[in-house]
Design brief:
By secondary structure, this protein is α/β, with parallel strands linked by helices. It is built from 11 helices and 15 strands. Helices cover about 25% and strands about 25% of the residues.
Length: about 350
């Protein structure tokens, strides 16, 4: 356990499943190789909501979640040279363990040890977060330019996951992209997919209000799967061929099964959205895979390289992250923030432990 002083701070603590409590906890003590960040913004991820309900084998309550964050360095250990007090930083979740031969490590966000902020390390639903040497030296901690707000910088983490997921899809210019699920990440997938060369973007969602949101993010075709036959509608929109690239940006088992039916021959299908525990074993028709010669895979998380790319995309103005934020809550209202994120009536929900941006 971290050596804690008696100085206290506010944090949203997952005391047990489905019990999030805002309370005083000891403020972390900074060791020689640590940095301390005053958290300015931390957005709520779908995986935070899943952990709130179902837990995770990398997180033991009582625990502080939160891995999509940004803040300001307020203290550095005596041996830290890369960061200084006053630096504005964006932080992600997945941290390479740093123990194995990097040349043999094919995908560092799939590290066997898989340490992560907001999981094994206390996260950013707190006034302060301690960043140990392993995290700042090899992990996703990037300097943020002054013109980028902290709440935009916090969303570099989900954007990095988007970049990783779409990179794996091997997008080619002229591809037709279909996204099932038009929440904030679904819309991000559409926007970045378009940047990468997709010329037709199909947005699919069960409910119409969220589907309408996809228009703002570049969808050419809107399909409400709650009101019409998804397969029929996709085939109509693609001259009977199907989509070249399909990603599921939702946690619905039936959506994963439907990807095979709307896929063009040799399509790339990324099961991007994870499924809840106990609902992830599906029976698929492997003959469809066989005869259509489909590529079926998944992606999760991102590498520190993707995180830096995300910060650069935001800083350059290529992607306007402000459009993805719908709700802001102070740390004292963290339970209400979680409820807002779960209600799915908006976009990204951001908790702001400190109001000055």
């Amino acid at each position: 356990d971290l050596n804690m002083s008696q100085e206290m701070m506010q944090a949203a603590v997952l005391e047990e499943l489905e019990m999030l409590v805002v309370k005083e906890v000891p403020k972390p003590v900074v060791g020689d190789t640590d940095i301390l960040i005053a958290v300015k913004a931390c957005s709520i991820c779908g995986s935070d909501i899943r952990m709130f309900h179902h837990g995770n084998n990398r997180l033991t309550p009582p625990a502080i979640m939160g891995h999509e964050s940004a803040g300001q360095v307020v203290e550095v250990g005596s041996q830290v040279t890369r960061f200084k007090v006053g630096d504005r930083v964006s932080m992600g979740g997945d941290v390479p363990c740093g123990r194995c031969d990097e040349l043999r490590c094919v995908s560092i966000n799939n590290c066997k040890i898989n340490p992560a902020m907001g999981y094994q390390y206390p996260g950013s639903f707190a006034e302060y977060v301690l960043v140990p040497e392993l995290v700042w030296s090899t992990g996703p901690v990037a300097i943020v330019p002054d013109h980028v707000s902290y709440e935009e910088a916090a969303l570099a983490e989900p954007l990095a996951c988007i970049i990783n997921g779409l990179e794996m899809c091997k997008i080619e210019f002229g591809d037709t992209l279909a996204i099932i699920g038009t929440g904030p990440l679904g819309c991000m997938l559409m926007e970045v997919g378009r940047l990468m060369g997709c010329t037709k973007v199909i947005a699919i969602n069960r409910s119409r209000p969220r589907l309408e949101m996809a228009k703002e993010f570049g969808a050419d075709v809107l399909i409400c799967s709650g009101e019409e036959d998804m397969e029929e509608a996709v085939m109509k929109a693609t001259n009977g061929l199907g989509a070249d690239v399909i990603l599921t940006a939702c946690s619905a088992p039936e959506a994963q099964l439907q990807t095979l039916k709307i896929a063009r021959n040799r399509a790339r299908i990324n099961l991007f959205g994870g499924l809840p525990k106990g609902h992830s074993e599906l029976t698929i028709d492997t003959n469809i895979l066989h005869y259509k010669e489909l590529y079926l895979f998944g992606s999760h998380g991102a590498s520190p390289k993707h995180h830096q790319m995300a910060v650069d995309l935001i800083a350059s103005g290529t992607i306007d992250m402000k459009r993805y934020i719908s709700h802001r809550f102070p740390l004292s209202q963290a339970p209400e923030a979680f409820q807002a994120a779960e209600d799915r009536d908006g976009r990204r929900v951001v908790i702001k432990p400190s109001d000055n941006d």
